[in-house]
Amino acid sequence: MFVGNMNNPLIVQSDLTLLLEVNSPLFEDARTVISTFADLIKSPEYIYTYEISPLSLWNAASSGIEAEQIKETLEKFSRFPVPENVKVYIQETINKFGKITIDKFESDNEFLLINFQDSLVEREILSHPGIRKYLIPQEDKILIRLLDRGEIKQQLINIGYPVKDLAPLKDGDFLEINFREKTLKGNDFGVRSYQKAAADTFYGNGIPGTGYGTVILPCGAGKTVVGMTVMNLLNTNTLILAPNIAAVHQWKTELLDKTTLTADDIGEYSGEVKIIKPVTIATYQILTWRRDKTAPFEHFKLFLEKNWGLIIYDEVHLLPAPVFKITAEIQAVRRLGLTATLVREDGLEKNVFSLVGPKRFDMPWKDLEAKGWIAEAICHEIRAELVQDLQINYATADKKHKYRIAAENPRKIGITNQLLEKHEGESIIVIGQYLRQLEKIASHLKAPIITGKTPNIERDQIYQSFREGKIKTIVVSKVANFAIDLPDASVAIQISGAFGSRQEEAQRLGRILRPKNGKKSYFYSIVTKNSVEETFSANRQKFLTEQGYKYNIIID
Predict the structure, then answer these.
(1) b/e per residue 109-127 (b: at least 16 CB within 10 A)
(2) What are the residue boundaries of the structural domains of the chain, listed by start?
(3) pLDDT single digits (tens) 117-128
(4) Which of 21, 323, 479, 513 is the most core-located residue (most Cβ within 10 A)?
C-alpha cells in the first residue's frame, strides 16, 4: 500500500518521467538509487528530470536489480501515488530480459539453440521478417548459426527483446598472467576491493551467461587494473582495443609495471607498428582505417590472427560504429568493456548492451570519493561576457557558428590567466576543442601544447615532464580527453568543448581525479554568458550532475 507524504522529493509521472526536488533532505538518497534504473534528462537548479527507458531497466536487471525493488524505491520517495501504468511498464519491461535465451546445442560447434520462455513471444519473433531469416526451425527446437549470434541479438533488442546469452564462450590459448607484489618502481601493489569485485562479477566463475559485459568506473579509479585482474583470472591471450596511441603505450606500461608479463609478451598494433603477440594492444583508429569509403576494413583480420580468449574494449563508449560489425561476429570470445560512462552521443548504447555486454558493475563516483579512492573535485562554471567586437557577428550567425564564436571568446584567455595565478604552483591542464584558440592561449601562457598534430615522441616527452613537475601547465586538445595518466594534475580549465557532449565532460573531469592525499581538485568550465554555449554546457554537465557533482556558477 502506498505511504507517501508531501515532504517526499519525488513525483512519478505517467509518461515515465521522474521529477526530483533538489532542496529536499532526501534528495541525495533518492538520486543515488534512482540513477541505477533511470536516465537524467534535465538538471536545472531545483528540479531534476529523469526518464525510465527500456535500456535503463535492462541494465538494472543485468546488475541484479528486480522490478519489485524499483517499484518499492519509487513508492518510498514519491510524494503522490505511483501511476499504475508506470508499475506495469517496469514489470513488463524487466520481464522481457531473459524471455529469449541462446544456449549451447548439444556438441555441435556450428549451431546454437534459441529458446523462448513464452509461446506468444515465440510466435511474434517467428513472424518477424527481419529475424525469421536467421532462424532454423527443427521438429521441437529452433537453431541459429553460430556466426549469426551477434546479428540476431542486435535485431532482437531493437524490437524490445534483449537476449540472455547462455551459450558457452571459448577458451583462448593459455598465457600465464600474474600480478607483482611490488611494481617495477618498488611500490607495494594490490588490487582494491571494488576492482576485484568488478572483475569477479564479470567473470562469474566462468558459468554460462557471464564473461561478457561492461564495467563502469570513473577515470582515476583504476579501470586498467580491473582489466588486468580479469586477465589474471583467465590466463589467456588477450586483445586490448584502446582509443589512441597514448592509451596503447599506457596499457603497455601498466602491464609491465604490475604484472609478470615481459616486453616479449606484448605487441602493439597501430599506425606506427604492427606487431602481434600473446597480448596485443591496438587502436580503434587502425581497425577502422580503409583505403576509401567502399574498401573493406582490412585490419579487422586482427581479430582472427590469434586464438584470443579475451577482448578488452577500453573506453567502450568511444567504440567506433564499424567495429560493432566484427564484434557481432566474435560473440564466442569473452568481451570486457571499460568506461566511465555508458553515454554515447551517437545513440548506440543498445549495440554496446547486446554485442559487448550489459552493465556488470557500476560504482557511484561520490562513493569512491568518500572512500578516498578518487579525489574530491570542486566544479565551477564561469560565465564571461562576449567581447564587444564579436557581438554583431554572433547576433547574425547561424546556430553552429554562434557556438564557435562563443566558444572562442577571447575573454576566456584573461580568465584562464587569472585561474593560473590563483592556483600557482599546482599542476594545471588547459583543455579545449579548437586548435586556433588553443594555439593562442598556449602562446599567451608560454605553455607547451599537445594536439593531434603533435608527434608521439614529443607528446610523450611533454606528458613526462608534466608528471615530473618540470612543467606546471600544459595546453591540450581533445586528444587528452581519455586514457592519459597524469596523476598529479589537480586543476583542469575547459575553454571549449564538443557541443553538448556528456561523455567528454566526464572524461575531462577524470583527468584530475587521481587521489592526492586528501587534496581537492578543481574543474573550471568557461562559457560565454547569454549564448548557445550555456545551453550546450548544461547538457554536457548532465552525467556529472547525475553522479552528484554540483557546478558553482560564477559570473565574470
Answers:
(1) eebbbbebeeeeebeebee
(2) 10-95, 106-165, 193-363, 369-555
(3) 889 999 999 999
(4) 513
pTM of the model: 0.86
Burial per residue of 522-550, b for 16 or more beta-carbon CB atoms within 10 angstroms, e otherwise: bbbbbbbbebbbeebbbbbbbbbbbbebe
Given a contact cutoff of 8 angstroms between Cβ atoms, the answer to whether 274 and 233 are in contact is: no
Residues pairing with 511 in the sheet: none
Contact 163, 101 (CB under 8 A): yes
Q: For residue range 10-61, what is the model confidence (pLDDT) as tens digits?
A: 999 999 999 999 899 999 899 889 989 998 887 777 889 999 999 999 999 9
For 1-12, the pLDDT digits (tens) are 555 577 899 999
Strand segments, DSSP code E, in 325-456 are: 334-339, 359-362, 377-384, 428-431, 449-450
pLDDT of residue 208: 84
Phi-psi map region of 315: left, alpha, beta (phi>0 left; psi -120 to 50 alpha)? left
Residue 28 has a CB neighbour count (10 Å cut-off) of 12
Whole-number Å distance between alpha carbons of 466 and 430: 13
Burial class of residue 232 (count of CB atoms within 10 Å of its CB; 0-12, 13-18, 19+):
middle
**Kind plus residue range of the DSSP H or E element containing 11:** strand 10-12
Q: 193-363 and 369-555: same fold?
A: yes
Q: Assess if CATH 3.30.530.20 describes domain 369-555.
A: no
Taking the alpha carbons at both ends of the chain, their separation in whole angstroms is 52
Contact 236, 383 (CB under 8 A): no
Sign of the torsion angle spanned by Cα atoms 283, 303, 277, 199: positive
Torsion angles phi and psi, residue 506, rounded to 5: -65, -40
- Grid look-up 511474434 returns 124
Quote the CA–CA distance of 445 and 213 in Å, as a whole number. Answer: 44
String of DSSP letters for 221-261: S-HHHHHHHHHHHH-B-EEEEESSHHHHHHHHHHHHHHBS-
Estimate to the nearest angstrom the gap between the alpha carbon of 33 and the chain centroid. Answer: 19
Tell me the CATH architecture of domain 193-363: 3-Layer(aba) Sandwich (3.40)
Predicted local confidence at residue 192, as pLDDT? 95
- Helix/strand number for the chain, H first, E second: 22, 23
160: left (phi over 0), alpha (psi -120 to 50) or beta: left
- Confirm if 20 and 50 have CB atoms less than 8 A apart: yes
**Of 379, 433, 372, 381, whose CA–CA distance to 408 is shortest?**
433
Nearest of 62, 60, 57 to residue 16 by alpha carbon: 57
Q: Helix H segments across 53-148?
A: 54-62, 67-77, 84-95, 119-126, 129-132
Which of 166, 164, 136, 162 has the alpha carbon at shortest distance from 148? Answer: 136
3-state helix, strand, coil in the chain (%, to 5): 40, 20, 40
Judge whether 316 and 223 are in contact, CB under 8 Å: no
